[in-house]
Every structure is written in structure tokens, then in C-alpha cells.
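Lab manual, section 2.4: Encoding a predicted structure.

Procedure: take the sequence of the chain (322 residues), apply the prediction step described in section 2.3, and record the output as C-alpha cells. A sample record is shown.
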Amino acid sequence: MRQAGRYMSEYRSLRERYSLLDLCRTPDLATEVTLQPVRRIEVDAAILFSDLLLPLEPLGIKFDFVHGEGPAIEQPLRTEADLARVRPFEPRQSLSYVLEAIQMIKHELGGRVPLIGFAGAPFTLASYAIEGGHSSSFAHTKALMYGSPAAWHRFCDTLAGVIGDYLTAQIEAGVDVVQVFDSWVGALNAADYREFILPHTRRIFEQIAPLGVPTIHFGVGTGSILRELREAGGDVIGADWRTPLDEAWTRIGADRAIQGNLDPTLLLGPLDRVFAATDDILARAGGRPGHIFNLGHGILPMTSLEHVQALARYVHEKTRTQ
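Recorded output:
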């Protein structure tokens, strides 16, 4: 996850000339950034270079990326009236540059590896729009969710419809797999997830199910709600590093695949520790089909490219002998 990024010198070179949104909105640049890790690392799939916040602007929620701070929403949504002003849009028009990038990437990959597309899930998109950026408490989001449940559900229903259409358009453009990122949904307990989120996320997976591509459902800090994530949908459920892989798989169920779950910060340490932790994850998977080895979240910017390369090689060496 987060294959492309600041840990790669070629990406930093582009970022000296272009903003993050420039890279996302310019198909040939998005194509180049998507291909950078494929050229340098033994990955088994390419991940579309984009950003999960891109649907916010056509929804009428303007944002930008502030250097050193991350995304910033120009006017955060804080009232029922704010939520009511949000209107759906047609992704094939408003996000056509993403679809064009997908077609270019598929052509450049030439079948070498599959391409993973993605979109943000309702809680994560809603929390960015309401908080105005990243949050540790999600206080504004939860205040609206608890205090104005009808408005919350209408808002999330709009988000789910747009996300479902967006992923459908990505599949039509050529992606081989789609991943739904609910990065911050771990802020909810199981009861709140069931009441406020599960119906909307399930709607997304139900919409794209007839299209026949594999689906991945991922969140951070979701150890206590893995059963609920499974119920919401996804052929593959992501698990972060806080829950041992075998325990997470038991919660998810043997009939689903699992993605995970090395702590990304381990890559900042010595390789012998990285390999020992990798061995533990592979042992917990036990050679069962359906395990996608991955980090428990994205690669950190200060990570050594050589460590990422070594990890990918090591996983392939270990699993090819099984």
C-alpha cells in the first residue's frame, strides 16, 4: 500500500515540479508515478496513483494539500444544512482524468501485473469533510453522526452512491481489482459501525459485485470490528499490524481472504528484524490460500527503498518454496 511516494527519489523529483493534485489530475504524470514502484520493487500488482479525496471537490467540498500538514478542507461541513448542500455527480465526467490514467497505465503495464484501483469509504470521506483534515478524536464527525442521524445517513447515502459509481467507472476503464479504503473507521466501535456505516459500505460492494472483479476492504485500527467489515463486504479484508494475522483471520472467517499485516515502521529498522516479523506473519498464515502479504498501512516517507526491495524479495523467496 502507498507503493508510490516520497521514499522514492524519482517521486521526490516529480514533486519538486508538481503538486500532489497536479500529479493526480494529469494522466501521464499519474501513469509515471504508478509505474515507478513496479520498475523498482518486485510487487505482484500495481496500485493506481491517485488520492481518495478526489471525489470531494465535485461534491462541492473544496480542499488542498498543505505542505507538512496534509489535506485541508476549505469549508468543513459542520451542520445539517452543510450536509444537505452536498450533491452527487457523474464520476465519468468529473473524474475523467483518473479513468484516462487507468487506460494509460494498463497499456504501459502490458499485462505484466494487475492494476488495483481504489476509493475512499463513506466514514473516511465524511470525516475528512467534517473535520477539515485529519483528526485524532473525530469529535466533529461523531457529534454530527450522533446528533443528526437522519442527515448523516442521507449524506453517507450520497457518498456511497458516488463511490459505487466511481469504482464501477474504474472497473470499466480497466482496473483488475478494487480496494475500498476506510482508513479511519477504526475510530468506531462495533455498534456504531453497524448503525451508521455498515449499510452504506455494503451498498458499495453490492453495486460492484456483478462486475466480477475481486474486492478488498481495508481499515486501520479495526481489530475489534473485523467481523463487521467482513459483513459489509469484500472478498479480501485488510488487517493492520495490531492484531496477529491468524487471530484476525479467525475473526474475518476462513471463507474470506486476508491482506496484511507487517507494521510499516519495522522497515525503518534493521532487516533481520523485518525478516523475523515477516516469518511470523507467514507462519500464522500457514500456507493457506488467500493471504496477500502487505504492510498494515502505507509505506512511510522516510523508509529506505532498499528495505522495501529486500522485503519483497524475501517474501517471494519464502513463499515460492512452500
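Check your result against the sample. The chain has a mean pLDDT of 96.
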